[in-house]
Amino acid sequence: MTSDQGKRSPRVGDSQPGARRGARDRGLVLAAVVAAGAVALLSGGRTWATARAVGTPVAAPPVPLTAGDLAPAVSALGLVALAGAAGLLAARGPLRRLVAVLVLLSGAGLAVVAGRAGTSESAAAREASESLPGGTSIGVAFSAWPWVAVVAGLVLAAAGFVAVARSGRWAALGARYDAPDGGRRAAPKDAWAALDRGEDPTD
Description:
Blueprint: H1 3-44, E1 47-54, E2 63-66, H2 67-70, H3 73-90, H4 93-117, H5 121-128, E3 137-142, H6 145-166, H7 188-196
Antiparallel strand pairs: 1-2, 1-3
Helix pairs in contact: 1-3, 1-6, 3-4, 4-6
């Protein structure tokens, strides 16, 4: 083994733990983003609140309200999260960091929108008023789905924050297939000259 090879070996060995940490971070972040986006899409079709007329002589059927009625942006933000996962996997450099920022913002937006929709009785009552008898009081009962969406938003925002901080150390999709040293290869005559000198041209 030559002295140059001896110097290179520790650097390669030292880089392996960092590469493994980067791969682990990327896997956890992508899993969190995909899971949060899927939960947002799932919650978007569920009943978030049920409105009932109070004090009417004739009982009126309750009115179920979904996220589409109270917070239409929830499903859209879920799609943004899934698209962001694909972007984090495929993009490189500053573009990947930009995608990470968008993921962070979409998570924060999801948490805020879902939290407001899950606590505003007046907004739910207005939405249900057209389906209930006029001139009556409206009672609103919220389900747990708004808070499920809030948690999904917080997880998404946290994953985006980690991606902003650490995505610069992640390998890009297909990077393992890139040619080493920027794709440069020794010219054939240089390889023959190295063989004549008794050297291995592949080192």
